[in-house]
Design goal:
478 residues; alpha+beta; 6-stranded mixed β-sheet; 3-stranded antiparallel β-sheet; 18 helices; 50% helix
Length: 478
């Protein structure tokens, strides 16, 4: 196997400046930009751990499309997901994965998601009402966007996912949300050490150690699984003998296929609640951050939204479906998703001998792709790839591509047959939430100097969160 190497390398830290970088995608992106390569770049991490980074569209295509089922997540990731959520989806065979995907896909297709947008819009209106309640109590209060969007997104997943309202916007400290918060771990250096040690030791033994934190996580996962199981049983009972052809939540559509066992549907909902919730909520935070920094763009977006509605139909349920046809809103959200990919680096392992760009890739080879690298590649996006510029999505024929030169330039949701199935769901949710806030408030940042500082870990999140100083631009009933 041949791949270009970066010359600056330490035995201890590899190609990175320190053993465990706060945000590994930052030095990784610099490596990709400064090291000549033909699409495959050999990189080294702590203690000379070796991996390949795919950097060019042909290499990414081979990894994510042509040979997509030759690669899978690391065993440590699959074991951790099972330990922390009870989900076995990571251990599905390729054939079972394809069967699940085929029968879950109709629920996430654009036409069905468009039918769900009335749910997203109504929840977005409920969210701004809750924000308004806090502002009435203290007009100078900084609004914690993460707090509100976390609750709104959980409720959306409950309603659109299972037809069940978790009601965390109205009851922020209810049992479900308290258990959910225990399930989402803040990253620490311990995770980095566990990842490093997993190269040499079987970490399944560590996962079984009865540590207090691990026990709490398991208890919370069991609680969420029991709630989910009960709701699915109720939806299944309602489905029997029903010929209702109206809009159905995602689990009801999946149940109608007759393919899924109850335990599999519980696993899928646990995936929605973890990966789906965090990524959408974080994208909303970054959207508020960019709108707060760019008042002229905020005004333009508000004008577009106002032009699409009149004051007497602002809360109309059908507005949610119209949100997706607003060009500047779509462009702004697309640019946020490009610049702030939730998972900047994805690590896979070759499950069998395979190839990338005709280079042999032996079984067990660690291969990475990086949305941070590809989403900012000047060869694909042009000289302004580093700049936040929604206009790139506004040109003729660029609404889907952003003017990039490849279908593999935008990797926020991955690509190929194993891409993120919830991409349409996430975008529609984000657009409704953003539209509701922008039509209700003028947004200024309460923490402009620090909101953009990144949190330690493997996801691209603000360290302290994004806080807003909001003023009403339209009245909201108490």
């Amino acid at each position: 196997m041949s791949a270009h190497k970066h010359q600056n390398r330490s035995i201890l830290t590899g190609n990175y400046p320190v053993l465990f970088p706060d945000n590994a995608w930052i030095p990784l992106r610099k490596l990709a930009e400064t090291t000549p390569n033909d699409g495959l770049l050999r990189i080294y991490s702590a203690l000379s751990g070796e991996a390949l980074l795919v950097t060019s569209p042909p290499a990414i295509r081979d990894m994510l499309t042509v040979n997509a089922f030759d690669f899978a997540h690391q065993d440590l990731v699959k074991i951790a997901i099972k330990r922390f959520t009870g989900s076995n989806l990571g251990f599905l065979s390729n054939d079972d994965f394809k069967l699940h995907r085929k029968n879950m896909m109709p629920a996430f297709a654009v036409p069905h998601v468009r039918e769900l947008t009335s749910i997203f819009w109504n929840k977005a209106q409920e969210m701004v009402h809750c924000m308004s309640t806090e502002l009435r109590a203290d007009p100078s209060a900084p609004i914690n966007f993460r707090e509100y969007v976390s609750r709104a997104t959980l409720d959306n997943i409950g309603l659109a996912g299972m037809g069940h309202d978790f009601q965390t916007l109205k009851q922020p400290d209810n049992d479900l949300r308290n258990h959910y918060r225990k399930l989402i771990l803040d990253p620490t250096r311990v995770f980095s050490w566990v990842g490093l040690l997993s190269r040499y030791f079987d970490m399944r033994l560590l996962m079984r150690v009865p540590l207090k934190k691990l026990i709490e996580i398991s208890q919370s996962a069991n609680y969420l699984r029991s709630v989910t199981r009960k709701v699915i049983q109720e939806r299944s009972a309602k489905l029997v003998g029903s010929n209702d052809g109206r809009t159905k939540d995602i689990i009801t559509v999946a149940l109608a296929s007759g393919v899924f066992e109850e335990r599999h549907l519980v696993d899928h909902v646990m995936t929605f609640l973890t990966a789906g919730h965090e990524s959408t909520a974080t994208a909303f935070e970054w959207t508020m951050y960019e709108l707060g920094r760019r008042p002229e763009m905020q005004r333009r977006l508000r004008e577009e939204l106002r032009a699409s509605m009149s004051s007497d139909n602002l809360a109309a349920a059908d507005f949610g479906s119209r949100v997706q046809n607003l060009s500047y809103l779509n462009a702004f959200c697309s640019e946020v998703l490009r610049c702030y990919p939730f998972s900047p680096i994805i690590v896979k392992v070759a499950q069998q001998d395979t190839t990338i760009m005709n280079h042999p890739i032996p079984k067990g080879t660690v291969v990475l792709y990086s949305a941070e690298v590809s989403n900012h590649d000047k060869k694909l996006w042009g000289p302004d790839a580093d700049q936040f510029n929604p206009e790139r999505w506004m040109g003729e024929g660029t609404a889907k591509s952003g003017g990039s030169s490849s279908n593999y330039a935008m990797l926020t949701f991955g690509a190929g047959p194993r891409n993120c199935i919830g991409a349409n769901f996430a975008r529609a949710t984000l657009e409704c939430l953003v539209a509701a806030v922008v039509t209700t408030f003028e947004i200024n940042l309460a923490n402009p100097q620090t909101a953009g500082k990144l949190k330690f870990g493997q996801t691209k999140k603000s360290a302290e969160g994004v806080y807003g100083k909001l003023t009403w631009v339209r009245p909201v009933e108490a």
